[in-house]
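Re-run requested by the PI after the first attempt was lost when the workstation crashed. Everything re-entered from the original request form. Ligand of interest: molybdate ion.
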Amino acid sequence: MNAPFQPAAQPNAQTLTTGQVLQQLSSMLQTLGPVTGTETLPLLDALDRILAQDVLCPVNVPPHDNSAMDGYAFDGALLARPPCAQELQLRVVGTALAGRPWQGRLQAGDCIKIMTGAVMPEGLDTVVPHEQVRIVDDEHIRFAAARLQAGDNRRLCGEDLRQGAVALARGQRLTPAALGLLASLGLVQVNVRRRLRVAYFSTGDEILAPGASPREGAIYDSNRFSLQGLLRRMGAHVLDLGVVADEPAALEERLREASALADVILTSGGISAGEADHTRAMLQRLGPVQFWRIAMRPGRPLAVGLLQPRTPALLTEKNASSALPAGAGSSAKQSKSLVTSHPAVLLGLPGNPVAAMVSFLMFVRPALLQLMGSSEAAPVPLQVAAAEPLAKRPGRTEYQRGIVERGADGRTTVRTTGPQGSGVLSSMVSANAIIVLDDAQADVQPGEMVSVLLLDGLI
Ligand SMILES: Nc1nc2c(c(=O)[nH]1)N[C@H]1C(S)=C(S)[C@@H](COP(=O)(O)OP(=O)(O)OC[C@H]3O[C@@H](n4cnc5c(N)ncnc54)[C@H](O)[C@@H]3O)O[C@H]1N2
Ligand code: MOO
């Protein structure tokens, strides 16, 4: 990450559309670039990490022509000549097993018994599966049902991956399939980008840490768990900085610590116009920070900016460790040596638990993917028929929590999870999709097609 970002819009400017927010966030992060550090890991340790450079194929995969079926390998040119295939009789002169090629001399009309994966003997290019063969005697076969063409049931050398070609491009997330593909090239390790370090804390006088005694007016911190869960799912290195009360000095101190330790600081709460919203005033002092109002529900407010870190020399490993809050998770303590000198990207989410999660999915997730150097495309919404009427006010994007299901009639429909308040966190648990109703959309009638984003793989 390099050059600092200068916000384009003024603080407290007009309400933005969700599209404008995505675009502005993306261009701000483009000026920073993705994290630069890389590490080389054994394949399985690299699961879900982001590939740091293109991987070229050192070999062809498969490395040789081989059989796709158990059967008999023969010269496909015989099919073009009389007699017709059904009358064709072949002499079986040997057996080729996977890992044990047959190497002998063949004469016209000879065939080889061959197993799936075995190397095709030289001069033979076609395989007839044994189900389509009639055994004549110990040495001969005939084709029982031969709808074959030359080259059938043969897998060509390099048909999966060609030597010298790009097997996986930089930015690819290493899914199980991608790991398998790297292994198929004979590779044992892979170079990936370092994990993105994300510091998280919740804000609010009313927020109780888990295990704390209940008290009047207080609620337990749920955002710290839902948001950190989302961060972990994305493969971020999470620094848990606990809960910060609505107290300006404490907030400032925690933000400064976070900006020295992390690439990204994620917070929840205190960014709307409430009386105790000190985060807002504080952030404006620490760096170029904008407070956006977005035409969406839930998730109307969002703070975005850059915080300059405290000079690294001032933050030694020792004071970085002692600076961590008493209740902070062990991951933060383990990372005390990971002091950064770059400006930290600040993303302040609204406090309401559903708003925080929805804003994360819509804006924080793509931002983090960009900083991680991932080339992953945005999830594609599907069109599904509404099972019930959906109330929708035009002029803002609504993200309603939905359940996509298949009825007895085989039709796929979507209904809401019930009450849609931005504090109803149970709606995020029962949902398997987010119904995305765009700005122009008005009330939805049953049977009308709506866009849904499946949550599988996202949360
Ligand atoms: N006069 C206005 N009031 C509000 C506006 C507005 O535009 N004008 N916006 C509303 C919207 S929309 C949202 S969203 C919230 C966002 O406010 P904040 O980000 O300042 O969040 P808080 O006020 O701190 O908290 C809101 C709500 O969420 C609960 N909360 C906060 N943190 C947590 C946590 N870690 N775990 C569980 N619950 C949490 C908090 O107790 C509040 O109930 O503002 C509206 N108001
Ligand atoms: O954006 Mo707020 O989420 O409507 O509650």
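Saved to the shared folder this time. Residues 18-37+194-372 form a domain with the Molybdenum Cofactor Biosythetic Enzyme; Chain A fold (CATH 3.40.980.10).
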